[in-house]
Design a protein that fits this description.
The chain is 27% helix and 21% strand. The protein has a single domain, classed as Class I glutamine amidotransferase (GATase) domain (Rossmann fold), CATH 3.40.50. Helix 4 crosses helix 5. It contains seven helices and 13 strands. This is Glutamine amidotransferase.
Length: 256
């Protein structure tokens, strides 16, 4: 019997104002916030053999019930995390925040790790993963290091710097046995103090943490770069293939 493709939930943490509705006729629906998610996440999961399912930012109390129907979880990029979530004051360079969305994502990723559901976290998602388990963030990287511009001007399909990966780590295994892996960069925040149960496994040339992963045997991996727009490079496509493979294995295990 052929195993069914795993269902991979993808969070959509970015909210946008409905500008189109404002310009439409009076008969149109009233303006309201809309969730936004880049299609490259979904295409990358589909190309790897999974079925992507977009997760709306619903009440965090529903997160466990949503997770019951999923085989894997991908935390996407998006806005800054509200600093009170990790016990910090808001920095003057902080961008727009959505605390309710933060709470939903942190709840569902905690539940996922607890239940052994495979997790791939990207950009903001890696930061959510760290904060969810007690870690902290650098709120504005230019105040930490000016040796590297972490907000590139080139398209996301183009790498802008390299990362050094930890020998023996999952990210090294997936990206290839090299300590100079090209990645892209679209962030001004990054992991600072690492949460218990996680460890840093990749770094930018200026020392910024670029990947974290779980200490246990389960698939828990966060990368600071936008791997979904680099899947034309085999090493980055391997991240999504590994998520789908782990989710397929998880789906095959009967529920307790």
């Amino acid at each position: 019997m052929t195993a069914r493709p795993p269902l991979i939930g993808v969070t959509s943490s970015e909210m946008r104002r409905d500008e189109a509705a404002i310009s439409m006729t009076k008969a149109a629906d009233p303006p309201h916030p809309e969730m936004a998610l880049g299609m490259p996440y979904l295409r990358a999961i589909e190309a790897a053999g999974g079925i992507p399912v977009v997760l709306p930012p619903i009440g965090h109390d529903l997160a466990p019930r949503v997770l019951e129907r999923l085989d894997g979880l991908c935390l996407s990029g998006g806005p800054d995390i509200d600093p009170p979530a990790y016990g910090a004051e808001r920095h003057h360079e902080l961008g727009p925040v959505e605390p309710a969305l933060d709470e939903f994502e942190m709840t569902i990723v905690r539940q996922a790790v607890e239940r052994g559901v495979p997790v791939l976290a990207i950009c903001r998602g890696a930061q959510v993963l760290n904060v969810a388990f007690g870690g902290t963030l650098h709120q504005h990287l230019p105040e930490v290091s000016t040796d590297l511009d972490h907000r590139q001007h080139e398209p996301g399909t183009s790498p802008s710097h390299t990362v050094r990966t930890e020998p023996g780590s999952r990210v090294r295994e997936l990206l290839g046995d090299s300590d100079q892996v090209p990645v892209n960069s679209f962030h001004h925040q990054a992991v600072d103090r690492i949460a218990d149960g996680l460890r840093a496994t990749a770094w930018a040339p200026d020392g910024t943490i670029e990947a974290i992963e779980g200490d246990g045997a389960g698939f828990v991996l966060g990368v600071q770069w936008h791997a979904e727009t680099l899947v034309h490079l085999p090493e980055h496509a391997h991240l999504f293939a590994a998520l789908v493979e782990a989710a397929t294995a998880a789906a095959a295990v009967p529920a307790a």
